[in-house]
Design brief:
Length: 179
């Protein structure tokens, strides 16, 4: 028997064993109460509404935070492109004093190009700022699984972490990540 046949035999034997396992076992048995007790239909509906409301609230907080950060960081680009478009004769051609005395079509075109060139690095800075702030506040840990609504005894993710979104627990300064 060659080594190739032995490998095929082992692979065939492995695939037969893997068919016997219906699903993978859970990674952390401490988070679950065995066996889980399902909730009643009305209780499940009420908990589902609570979990969906909480997850939606966390989503909108993340969205608002992202909007504020991107607006502040991209403000120079917005201003430069706005003045470039406002003073260009083929776009808006404003009658403002600074458009007639300072900005002509060439300088307006330069402002538009400059605004779009500096946009890319500022988007990276804005995203890095949002990611570090969301990580520091642990906003993504506030999302709750749907199993919280279906079964009794499922713990809130943030409960053992030290409070809502783990804000009470100290921030780990040893872990660094580059964005």
């Amino acid at each position: 028997m060659s080594s190739h046949d032995a490998e095929d035999l082992g692979a065939e034997n492995l695939s037969e064993k893997s068919r016997m396992l219906p699903t993978l076992p859970p990674y952390d048995m401490d988070d679950q109460l065995l066996p889980r007790e399902p909730r009643s239909a009305w209780c499940c509906l009420a908990w589902t509404l609570l979990v969906v409301t909480m997850n939606s609230l966390v989503f909108f907080i993340n969205l608002l935070l992202m909007f504020i950060i991107f607006t502040i960081v991209l403000l120079p680009t917005i201003v430069v492109v706005y003045f470039g478009f406002q003073c260009h004769s083929r776009v808006l051609h404003s009658a403002a004093r600074y458009c007639k005395s300072i900005l002509d079509d060439n300088s307006s075109s330069a402002l538009i190009i400059l605004g779009f060139v500096i946009m890319s690095p500022l988007i990276v800075v804005a995203m890095a700022t949002y990611c570090s702030l969301a990580r520091r506040l642990r906003l993504l840990m506030c999302f709750q699984p749907c199993s919280r609504a279906l079964y009794k005894g499922v713990k809130w993710r943030w409960y053992e972490e030290g409070g809502l979104c783990s804000c009470a627990r100290g921030f780990n300064t040893q872990v660094k990540a580059w964005v």
